[in-house]
């Protein structure tokens, strides 16, 4: 499902679309973010704007299960599902799940530096799988995020990337969906994916 893009003459309250002719990618990103329907995510990944519809129920069940397991295993960790991260390459992304110490995002900012993040998780879908596996992996590694977990529903796998270096991770472990997945330091606990 795709969101209709603004065209000259369309009416957006508070915005004159004509002012955006010849706009930069960043300015266009701001416009799309301002007019996206509630629940839709607008991301800027390696210079490309993507508008993503709300997640389906299966996706949200996985995020909920992961969040609950983090809560049960380490009460000091915050579980965030709508945190905007600014990555070093200029990308602005909203991961499906961010794990960081509680209080890391207690301000009112829309976009945050990724310095407090210990883990980001993405649950793939038909429309996001390519970005989750490639562009976001590079962006999260560049940001120095210690652990990147990908729940690949199509492949039936969980991939844990760790030890970021430049634009890649030097360690990668793959587990079948349904397995108990150990998470490396700085987390040091497990995800039981049998409920995924």
TrEMBL record:
Occurrences of domain Putative restriction endonuclease (ranges): 32-191
InterPro entries: Nuclease_put_TT1808, Restrct_endonuc-II-like, Uma2
Species this protein is from: Streptomyces laurentii
Signal peptide: none
Record-linked CDD domains: DUF820-like (cd06260)
Protein name from the UniProt record: Integral membrane protein
Name of one Pfam family that matches: Uma2
Ranges in coiled-coil conformation: none
């Amino acid at each position: 499902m795709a969101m209709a893009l603004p065209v000259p003459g369309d009416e957006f309250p508070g915005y004159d679309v004509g002012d955006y002719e010849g706009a930069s990618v960043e300015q266009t990103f701001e416009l799309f973010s301002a007019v996206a329907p509630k629940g839709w995510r607008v991301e800027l990944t390696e210079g490309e704007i993507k508008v993503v519809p709300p997640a389906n129920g299966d996706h949200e069940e996985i995020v909920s299960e992961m969040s609950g397991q983090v809560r049960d295993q380490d009460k000091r960790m915050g579980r965030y599902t709508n945190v905007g991260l600014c990555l070093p390459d200029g990308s602005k992304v909203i991961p499906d799940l961010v794990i960081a110490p509680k209080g890391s995002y207690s301000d009112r900012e829309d976009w945050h530096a990724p310095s407090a993040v210990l883990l980001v998780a993405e649950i793939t879908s038909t429309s996001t799988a390519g970005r989750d596996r490639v562009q976001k992996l590079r962006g999260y590694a560049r940001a120095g995020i210690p652990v990147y977990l990908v729940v690949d529903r199509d492949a039936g796998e969980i991939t844990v990337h760790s030890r970021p270096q430049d634009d890649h991770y030097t360690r990668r472990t793959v587990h079948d969906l349904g397995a108990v997945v150990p998470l490396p330091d700085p987390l040091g606990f497990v995800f039981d994916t049998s409920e995924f």
